Amino acid sequence: MPKRQRRRSTIYDIATQAETSASTVSLVLNGSWRRYRINPDTAERILEVSRSLGYNINLRARGLRLKQSRLAGMVIPHYRNRFFAGLAETFEHEVRRRGLCPVVVSTQRDPVTERTVIETLVAQQVELLIITGVDDPDELNAICLNAGVPCVNLDLPGRSAPSVVSDNRGGSYKLTALLIEAVRERGGDPSTIRFVGGRPNEYATEERARGFAQALEDAGIAVQDEWIIRCGYQPIAARTVMQTLAQARAGFPSGVFINSITSLEGFAEFMRSKWEICQSTVLSCFDWDPFAASLPLPTIMMRQNVEELIEQSFAILDGTVPHSPEPVVVPPTLEVIRTKSNIAA
Amino acid sequence: MPKRQRRRSTIYDIATQAETSASTVSLVLNGSWRRYRINPDTAERILEVSRSLGYNINLRARGLRLKQSRLAGMVIPHYRNRFFAGLAETFEHEVRRRGLCPVVVSTQRDPVTERTVIETLVAQQVELLIITGVDDPDELNAICLNAGVPCVNLDLPGRSAPSVVSDNRGGSYKLTALLIEAVRERGGDPSTIRFVGGRPNEYATEERARGFAQALEDAGIAVQDEWIIRCGYQPIAARTVMQTLAQARAGFPSGVFINSITSLEGFAEFMRSKWEICQSTVLSCFDWDPFAASLPLPTIMMRQNVEELIEQSFAILDGTVPHSPEPVVVPPTLEVIRTKSNIAA
DNA sequence: CTGAAAGCGCTTACAG
DNA sequence: CTGAAAGCGCTTACAG
User: B32: Cβ under 7 Å from strand D?
Assistant: First the structure.
């Protein structure tokens, strides 16, 4: 690749060639020339030269002058599941619809990266920012606030910034209730059901754990702390958990509540190696993936409403929705997979 | 959300408060103050004020002055599969390692979006651009070239720009050869094998089709055009194809070469509804997904070497590799899933 | 050791 | 109808 070569043409180049001034070129190029009653011949000449030069505006210069960047930022942990991929794509779509340029950056759940990414985006003058899947949003929100960049936390509670969340607790309750029902239908013991995945003290994980516990309590089962296994987001961690459960004297769970698609990945790996142990287990997963439907076990998935989450975030950013310390709650959608068994009504 | 509020602080604000000049502030803030023998007391004072103001540099202004943006762009169709998600994440990692800010934008395979996205990125002055999964790269490359933005096409052949590609043909050949072998082992008829997915005239699709045909020919089977079904990338299209094949008098294929993970999604849907038809079929998929390993059919996947593809792209962008009209070819990796059958040595 | 000045590529109020 | 001028927030060669 040739290192950067010929100077890019500017409005001055156009002005010279079209024998007019940079001011006029600017007016013509950004379309306000009608308002300024520029001579159509002049305009035509300018457009002609601009085309022949392959002129491409320097948006950074424009932005500096206008104090606007036309950039909209979003921070996500990664793109490797349908939830975050969907968020990124929906965000991009919405941002483009508004004539802005989307800048989505992933952080791999690393707090240091999270901070530098936010600082960079703010330094790049993004006009708004949606933050999701970070460790601690408060400090990050403070950076935005201080720079006057409107931001919202997605699926994260907000102390200093507004937030939009999925109904993690309610969704989890439903998911667990259906799981209990399915386990009972198959003659299993609901008190062997376990919750696997997520991080301790992480908002979404804790909310889901609460919904899980509540559903069991309401079914007359006294939940013990050890039933909720927050082993993180690595597939291998979930796999190890399943291995341990298989060896426990309580016996393998009749139902497993999987807290994320990565944990389901770990479960699937375990299942492939120990099919005989898993074959009468029922799964609930608080996440959605088309291939999870192909697991040979009955699976109930909760699909987060990505479109609505983004829409609500923009409603807040637009100021359409009054600012409130309470998060806007978006209900997720149930997807029941009737593999080898009809587990829900 | 409060609309953008208090003016962001600038080096002038710092200069005023620290009773010095903007020049000195700039020198101190960007670390070149030692070289300029700035009084450490002055420097300390400036740093102090800067911190108290929560100063955040305006990178766009800096970039305008320095004629550099510190932005690196990548264009991909979407994030919904592991290949593109992996490319995006690896790209981001590499870009950050170089102290640049990654800007990955998805186009949903829409040619109009592709063009406007590239134009926007160029107008935002990205310092380099990696393009993948677009309809026609030539025109897009021309935009970059004209603006002096180094670009490379990833998994796309380049007329006017260099490119890095997976060994689609070779990978496909191997994938097909293994498929034939597995079909024969199970007593199936390899001449019923079909190729499903991808787009006519699309580079990767055509290369893979060639590898597919060659492997069959080499196995002594005369390939007919209709065996290669380029039905696009929608899951539903692949599903419909499977439905049609199930009704054809030739009988359901003993092996299916699936050209993309989205087509595999369509196949899985069909399989769930017509398990009895599919149960003795073997799958080859030119794509990789962890859950595809959980399908109840023997599956061979070709996993593209995402890290190497990105690394080679940067080698070209860095000028480490001499410019050549021939694409740099990266071999993909075989992943054999031994579900219910041991299909490869 | 430090500051004034020019300039990056634009936009737009203003004067003609 | 059109151009000169100022200014967005930085950097840095230059002069002191």
Answer: yes
Are residues B291 and A272, on separate chains, in Cβ contact within 8 Å? no
Distance in Å from D9's C1' to B86's CA comes to 37
Give me the tens of pLDDT residue by residue for chain B, a chain 345 residues long. Answer: 444 446 789 999 999 999 998 999 999 998 877 787 888 888 889 999 999 998 999 999 999 999 999 999 999 999 999 999 999 999 999 999 999 999 999 999 999 999 999 999 999 999 999 999 998 899 999 999 989 999 999 999 888 899 999 999 999 999 999 999 999 999 999 999 999 999 999 899 999 999 999 999 999 999 999 999 999 999 999 999 999 999 988 789 999 999 999 999 999 989 988 888 988 899 999 999 988 888 888 889 999 999 999 999 999 999 877 777 789 999 999 887 665 433 333
Q: Which residue's CA is nearest to the C1' of nucleotide D7?
A: A65
Q: List the single protein residue with the shortest CA to C1' distance from C5.
A: B23
Distance from CA of A217 to the nearest CA of B (A): 33
Where do we find the tokens 């082992």?
B185
Nearest alpha-carbon partner for B162 in B284, B333, B321: B321
Both tokens assigned to B35 = 């070289």
CA of A14 to C1' of C4 (A): 32
Domains B11-66 and B168-304+333-338 share a fold: no
Name which of B210, B125, B199, B140 is nearest B171 in CA terms.
Answer: B210
Shortest distance, CA B292 to any CA of chain A (angstroms): 7
Minimal C-alpha gap between A321 and chain B (Å): 9
Q: Do A294 and B294 touch (CB under 8 A)?
A: yes
> Hey, which residues 31-90 in chain A have their CB within 8 Å of chain B?
54, 56-61, 63-64, 69, 71, 78-80, 82, 84-86, 88-89
State which CATH number among 3.90.380.10, 3.40.50.300, 3.40.50.1000, 3.40.50.2300 fits the domain covering B71-161: 3.40.50.2300
Fold classification of B168-304+333-338 is: Rossmann fold (3.40.50)
Closest residue in B to A160 (Cα) is B1
> Does B317 reach chain A within 8 Å, measured CB to CB?
yes
pTM: 0.91
List of B residues 11-50 with CB within 7 A of strand C:
19-24, 36-39, 42-43
Any strand D atom closer than 7 Å to B66 CB: yes
Give residue limits of the domains in chain A.
11-66, 71-161, 168-304+333-338
Residue of chain B whose alpha carbon sits nearest to that of A320 = B1
DSSP alpha helices (H): ranges in chain B?
11-18, 22-29, 40-53, 59-66, 82-97, 111-123, 137-147, 168-185, 203-218, 235-247, 261-273, 275-278, 306-317
Query: How does pLDDT run across A268-297, given as a tens digit for each residue?
Result: 999 988 888 988 899 999 999 988 888 888
Long-range contacts of B178-181 (CB under 8 A, 24+ apart): B178/B284, B178/B300, B178/B334, B178/B336, B178/B343, B178/B344, B179/B255, B179/B257, B179/B282, B179/B283, B179/B284, B179/B300, B180/B215, B180/B216, B180/B219, B180/B221, B180/B255, B181/B343, B181/B344
Class of domain A11-66: mainly alpha
Q: What pLDDT digit, counting tens, does each position of B66-97 carry? A: 999 999 999 999 999 999 999 999 999 999 99
